[in-house]
Specification:
The chain contains 6 helices and 24 strands. Helix 1 runs antiparallel to helix 2. It has a domain of about 190 residues. The strands form 7 sheets. Strands 1, 2, 3, 6, 17, 22 and 23 form a 7-stranded mixed β-sheet that branches. It is an alpha+beta fold and about 425 residues long.
Length: about 425
């Protein structure tokens, strides 16, 4: 039975969750703080404090959708943010590449200390499939481009999906096909290999280069990792069966749970054409060996929990995952503010003090320890900065969701300068 809206928990900037990852039960207070920021200035608390998100929220489509057409899949603007623990700090950047007038390419980057996450941004291009082979057109002049998954390498090969559906219909007949057509159209042909396992939202992915002209020219990615760009030779190498050899997308936004490597960390890995530990991400130092524990579909029920890697809770793309950042550290952004210089984003020099009144033994207050800065979200154009912290404390036994909700209503979070 559905809970009436007036009794449903309203989203807010503080949540309480309980967990028992091992023998010790835990309670965690998770708190978000929203700030206003400007280049090389101390951030100040915003008047409007945004809530912690508990579900996926997609971006608006980059282009208008003609009336009657199926809306395109769009990358995620928001993802669940309430985790008792994460193994480090995830950094997310919502922004645009802002070129100088007349440029056809530029570089953008995000840097913390010596760790650099960079991308090459290029004007619009097409892949043309001609009798003599595949040809890429010259890039058009750059306009400001959002740093979204849709403009990085990846995507959905709709032409291949339609060929597959037609083949199924020819094999089983129209009447039998209609019984499964909805599932096949909405789910099956939107999963690998019809979509790119690393980024289902992007552009440039073709599963069968011998037949792409049925779908016309293919839009090429605008945002790519330096040294890992798509080439006609890589595009023409039967990608559906050798997707590991295709480019690692240059991403700045949230990574959804169905995309590699998060899918491989949650017991649902895509079909690999090489051993998981031999993936390019491992060789590049973006993943460590053993990141993929296996598939829960191939193990006994009691072994399913072993198929989950704690890094599955990390929602930043590869390259934007850090050891825990500290208040006062500086994040540098280049190419996103319309200026030649780097933008300096100063992490707020404050941290939360968290407690739950009455949750300790004998009715005492329970103070959270092990404070973790789990997430930093920078919205460049809006001038907003969000941080998500968690604090964890041991408890005697795991509590119900109802108890966690009651604790949330009384939890105290005091933001104190450092």
């Amino acid at each position: 039975m559905a809970i009436p809206p007036e009794y449903q928990a309203k989203p807010g900037p503080v949540e309480v969750v309980t967990a028992q990852p091992g023998e010790q039960a835990l309670v965690a207070v998770v708190a978000k703080r929203t700030y206003r920021w400007a280049h090389n200035c101390e951030a100040v608390a915003a008047e409007v404090q945004r809530p912690l998100y508990k579900g996926d929220e997609p971006h608006e489509p980059l282009e208008d959708v003609p009336l009657g057409d199926e809306p395109p899949m769009t990358s995620l603007r928001r993802v669940p943010e309430v985790f008792a623990r994460r193994p480090g700090t995830d950094v997310i950047v919502h922004g645009r590449a802002v070129p100088t007038p007349g440029a056809v390419s530029m570089s953008v980057s995000m840097r913390v200390g010596t760790k650099l996450h960079a991308a090459t941004v290029t004007g619009d291009r097409l892949a043309l499939f001609e009798p003599g082979g595949i040809r890429f057109t010259d890039p058009a002049e750059l306009a400001p481009l959002p740093l979204r998954h849709e403009l990085a390498f990846g995507g959905l090969d709709r032409a291949a999906g339609q060929r597959f559906l037609q083949g199924v219909q020819d094999e089983v007949g129209l009447m039998a096909f209609r019984r499964t057509a909805t599932y096949l159209r909405k789910k099956f042909i939107k999963a690998p290999p019809f979509s790119y396992a690393r980024n289902m939202y992007g552009r440039g992915y073709v599963t069968d280069p011998s037949q792409p002209w049925q779908g016309g020219p293919v839009a090429l990615p605008n945002i790519e990792r330096p040294g890992d760009e798509l080439t006609p030779e890589r595009l023409g190498g039967n990608p559906a069966m050798a997707w590991s050899r295709l480019p690692i997308p240059a991403l700045f936004g949230f990574l959804d749970a169905n995309s590699f490597p998060r899918s491989a960390m949650s017991g649902l890995p895509p079909a690999f054409d090489v051993h998981p530990d031999e993936m390019p991400e491992v060789r590049a130092g973006l993943l460590v060996k053993g990141y993929c524990p296996g598939s829960w579909a191939t193990v006994k029920p009691e072994d399913v929990p072993k198929m989950f890697n704690p890094d599955m809770a990390r929602t930043a793309p590869l390259g934007l995952r850090f050891d825990y950042l500290r208040p006062g550290e500086v994040i540098f952004l280049r190419g996103m503010g319309g200026l030649e210089r780097e933008l300096a984003v100063l992490l707020p020099r404050e941290a939360p003090m968290m407690s739950i009144p009455g949750a300790g033994g004998g009715g005492r207050d329970l103070t959270m320890g092990e404070l973790e800065l789990q997430q930093v979200l920078i919205d460049v154009d809006a001038g907003e900065l969000e941080v998500v912290w968690s604090g964890v404390a041991p408890i005697a036994m795991r509590q119900s969701a109802g108890q966690a909700l009651a604790w949330r209503d009384v939890a105290r979070v005091d933001w104190r300068p450092l």
